[in-house]
Specification:
Length: 125
């Protein structure tokens, strides 16, 4: 079963969803993992209909990039800020990845997107 999740992570790493800079974004938040050098920059746009759009640019390991891609795919086109806030936590990201994150370095990589999004003034976390 673990192999299926590993294949999913590799797919999101090689074919990231929402991997571009949004045009005319309202906010940009970034974070760098100083241990390994992984980086993500997340773009947030509040649409006229109240929904939020997310995209990102980044580089680094499969865990950091796949976690960001998976989380943003799940958050995109949502207008419920409380729902978004509830999902911006390590337990939720770990459930998306579906693999054990058994060491601090892997946890820090998975947490990169969360740390970035918690800087958002739009989300108010």
């Amino acid at each position: 079963m673990l192999n299926i999740y590993q294949q999913n992570i590799i797919d999101y790493y090689k074919n990231p969803r929402y991997h571009y800079a949004l045009d005319d974004y309202d906010e940009m938040v970034s974070e760098v993992n100083t241990i390994c050098g992984d980086a993500v920059t997340i773009y947030i746009k509040k649409q006229a209909n109240g929904k939020l759009s997310f995209s990102f640019l980044g580089e680094g390991c499969a865990i950091s990039q796949a976690a960001t891609s998976m989380l943003l795919e799940d958050l995109n086109d949502t207008d419920d800020i409380e729902e978004i806030r509830d999902k911006i936590n390590l337990d939720y990201v770990k459930s998306l990845l579906g693999i054990p994150l058994d060491n601090p370095a892997r946890l820090k990589c998975a947490n990169l997107c969360i740390v970035s999004l918690r800087k958002s003034k739009i989300l108010g976390i």
